[in-house]
Amino acid sequence: MQLDPSVLRALSLDPATTTVSAHGSSGFNATAKISTTHPDDGGGTRRPGYYFMKTSSAGRDAETMFRGEHASLNAIRGAVPSLCPASLATGVCADGTTAFLVTEFVDLGPSRADDAAGGAAGAADEDDTIGSGMSLAAKLGKLHTTPAPVPEGWAEPGFGFPETTCCGDTAQPNGYMRSWADFYARNRLLAVLDKCERKHGTDGGLRDLVERVVETVVPRLIGDEHLRDCGTGGVTPVVVHGDLWSGNKGRGRIGGKGAVEDVIFDPSAVYGHSEYELGIMNMFGGFGKSFFDEYHKICPKTPPVEEYPDRLKLYEL
After folding, report:
1. 207: Cα separation from own chain's centroid
2. Which uninterrupted H or E stretch holds 308?
3. Residues 6+ apart with CB under 8 A from 158
4. Sign of CA dihedral 118, 120, 126, 128
5. Neighbour count for residue 151 (Cβ, 10 Å)
6. Using CA atoms, how far apart are residues 184 and 305, in angstroms rounded to an integer?
7. SS3 category, 156
8. Rounded distance between C-alpha atoms, residue 22 and residue 53, angstroms
9. For the chain, how far is it from start to end, CA to CA, in angstroms?
10. Nearest of 69, 114, 64 to residue 242 by alpha carbon
């Protein structure tokens, strides 16, 4: 298995000291581990380096997916550095059709005994083994209380994302809007309905149901005026992973070194309502009561609290 020259250039790697091998699995892409060595700062013994790579021959769709994931990982990492790997490069291979994404390698599954020892003997210095000391619930709470950046050309944060993102293989439009209710209705509910109709044909009953949710349920539960009247001041946009379930989280060493951290991956991010994240988490499970108790101490439920279960049901759609 040879590493494509476009990837070597993107990472500034020496082909003489770099190898690539199949690693892990994905429902949509081929996945691999890149192993290399870097010159020591002092010019002595070379130190090992590892990267995780996804490739896909799905053409423009794969390029879109990887650009979205690249931006998503780096948006999350910008808010909580220990929560996910950095994305380092994305682009197209020398064949002109295969897209790639390269991130820091996450060494998943080390034991807690290894964590206490800092990994293999001599592999990490003392500072590398300290880690963040934060649980996944604490990290997610911090993520969901970090205000979104102001988009270019805007005077204040908005709801959206700089790139189209993909939940599975479904592309999600992320054009910025000032209203979270409008964003969720148009760029999630109606956008998915439009894609279903393009793929499977029109279903009058389904369209009627979705439009009724958009016209009645969305403004009733997350409408701007409704939430403001309840004393929240409206929804504050924060970055959410967008596809967080038990299969997209784990424990490992980011970059293959340092302390074991709770990490998340495969994001489909958007700057939106923090509770939007919880819909898919609640739907697929894997997060218990103690997790949410800790999380909500940092990121409280949006008032009116009695409507919280209904909002999560809405966000499962």
Report:
1. 29
2. helix 308-315
3. 148, 151, 176, 177, 178, 237, 271
4. negative
5. 17
6. 20
7. coil
8. 9
9. 41
10. 69
Q: Output the CA angle 100-110-144, nearest 5 degrees.
A: 65
pLDDT, residue 188, reads 97
Tell me how far apart the alpha carbons of residues 83 and 10 are, in angstroms, rounded to a whole number. Answer: 24
Counting every residue written for the chain, the total comes to 317
Quote the Cα angle for 311-141-24, to 5°: 95
What distance in Å separates the CA atoms of residue 278 and residue 309, rounded to the nearest whole number? 10
The DSSP H or E segment spanning 249 is: strand 249-254
Q: Residues with Cβ < 8 Å from 234, sequence gap 6 or more?
A: 180, 224, 227, 228
The three-state (H, E, C) secondary structure of 8-25, written as one string: HHHHCCCHHHCEEEECCC
User: Is 122's pLDDT higher than 60?
Assistant: no
Residue type, 82: S
The pLDDT tens digits for 161-189 are 999 999 988 999 999 999 999 999 999 99
How far is it, in rounded angstroms, from Cα 207 to Cα 179? 23
pLDDT score of 18: 95
Q: What is the pLDDT of residues 209-238, one digit of tens each?
A: 999 999 999 999 999 888 876 666 779 999
- Is the pLDDT at 113 greater than 60? The verdict is no
